Amino acid sequence: QGQLLQSGTEVKRPGASVKISCTASGDTFTTHQMHWVRQAPGQGFEWMAIINLRGGSLNYAQKFQGRLMMTRDTSTSTVYMEVSSLTSEDTAIYYCVLSSYDFPRHWGQGTLVTVSS
Amino acid sequence: DIQMTQSPSSLSASVGDRVTITCRASRSLGIYLNWYQQTAGRAPQLLIRAVSNLESGVPSRFSGGGSGTDFTLTITSLQPEDFATYYCQQSYTTPWTFGQGTKVEIK
């Protein structure tokens, strides 16, 4: 049974960047895709991006184009997501989600990012 | 983007009640419709994948159905641990989109 372990809570100033990691275990990393989804306080879910873990191809949601970067390290089964030019509207819990054949399989435990001056 | 509309947004029910939540998509999803349960401060738990396939460990009182654009999540005989917020989600295409959630509260 696979699982995803995300990095810990972050507090950032407006204008800063944040880099979150998500490490997979117990599953075949390169046969899947990884998505990032976020949930602002008291709100619903917003899809951000997907990376193909075998070939590394990327697709970002239009609203994040230009300030979102995803990378993967197949040697450690880890995906990184960096969000730049943070504002208070980026305060949210960020989740990585492993998918296979276009279906979700596992969610990470979430990483709280707080953007505050 | 595919719009997902859940109803109701909240409901009050008693232990033992049968509860049905509806999710409507703005286009046909085939089998790419999933349901989640979320309790406060926790990551969403995947309950049902591909319209009606129960995830391992999920009690059989949960069931999913529907086709095309209209889907349902049914909980027969609601239990205390089922009071939570439920979300539908389409994985037909990116961007994945989610319903706004249905909060199931104790009557």
Descriptive report:
- The complex is a heterodimer of chains A (117) and B (107).
- By secondary structure, chain A is mainly beta.
- Helix content of chain A is 0%, strand content 55%.
- Chain A has strands spanning 3-6, 10-12, 18-25, 33-39, 45-52, 58-60, 68-73, 78-83, 92-100, 103-107, 111-115.
- The mean pLDDT of chain A is 94.
- In chain B, strand 7 (62-67) and strand 8 (70-75) form a beta hairpin.
- Chain B has 107 residues and is an all-beta fold.
- The interface between A and B is medium-sized, with 18 and 20 residues.
Low-confidence stretches of chain B: none
- Most residues in contact: chain pair: A-B, 18 and 20 residues
Structural class of chain A: mainly beta
Mean pLDDT metric of chain A: 94
Whole-angstrom Rg of chain A: 13 Å
Outline of chain A, from the CA principal axes? globular
Described by strand count, sense and barrel closure, the largest sheet of chain B is: 7 strands, mixed
Q: Report the β-strand fraction of chain B as a percent range.
A: over 45%
Report how far the terminal alpha carbons of chain A are from each other. Answer: 41 Å
By oligomeric state, this entry counts as heterodimer
The class by helix and strand makeup of chain B works out as mainly beta
Q: What Rg of chain B, in angstroms, do the CA atoms define?
A: 13 Å
Q: Tell me roughly what share of residues is in helical segments of chain A.
A: under 10%
Strand content of chain A: over 45%
E-strand count of chain A: 11
Give unreliable regions of chain A as ranges: none
Instruction: State the helix count of chain A.
Output: 0
Q: Helix share of residues of chain B? A: under 10%
Number of helices of chain B: 0
Distance between the ends of chain B: 36 Å
Return the string of H and E elements of chain A: EEEEEEEEEEE
